Amino acid sequence: MIFTAITTVLFDLDGTLLPMDQDVFVAAYFKKLAVKLAPHGYDPKELIDAIWMGTGAMITNNGSCSNETAFWNVFCKKFGKDARKDEPIFEEYYKTDFQSVKDVCGFDPVAAETINALKEKGLRLILATNPIFPAIATQSRVRWAGLDISSFEHYTTYENSSYCKPNLDYYREIMAKCKLKAEECLMVGNDVGDDMVTRELGMKVFLLTDCLINKKDVDINQYPHGGFAELMEYINTL
For labelling alongside 133, which of 67, 94, 158, 185 has CA 20 to 30 A away? Predict the structure, then answer.
């Protein structure tokens, strides 16, 4: 079957392709990072506070710099301009201790089956995960989901992005880089606030409800929704 209505499917990662309880994931991530950095003089509470502040700077980034720069500007303001010299320690953390955070995540083989099915149909695939992590961490989480990063022609990280969800400019930046038209795109995600906002740009949307995040208790019946089986059924109607 040749799809004419859509050419591209954008997927969120955390809670979509990679099942997880976001709060549990963040707790495990921070705990292991604090243990890794404590021997290097970082007080755990101050470290976590600084990371939250840096994350806030990325979420509110207005495109004036990369999210990577936004994060480190805040982090270095907290710990001094030389703090970035410790970036290799963070990279080592993502290569080692971070890998055990996989244990608090779920796994759904149907995610990879769905990606492979869409590739076989000739659809373009974009990994539209909120770009608050470096590439090394995103690549790891993709592997945890049983996927290969090469399945996606583009994936967002804090190095290559200048906005974050739910800012529509985050999605506009993807469309510009990948030369996409909104009306030819389908956004698949589990977060009503972060992912379904793409409908305002003219994209089609599908809300994956297995790990639903709906902070404002929005009526989800306004969106096509369900699991991966329902997603494929929906795509087959387009």
Answer: 185
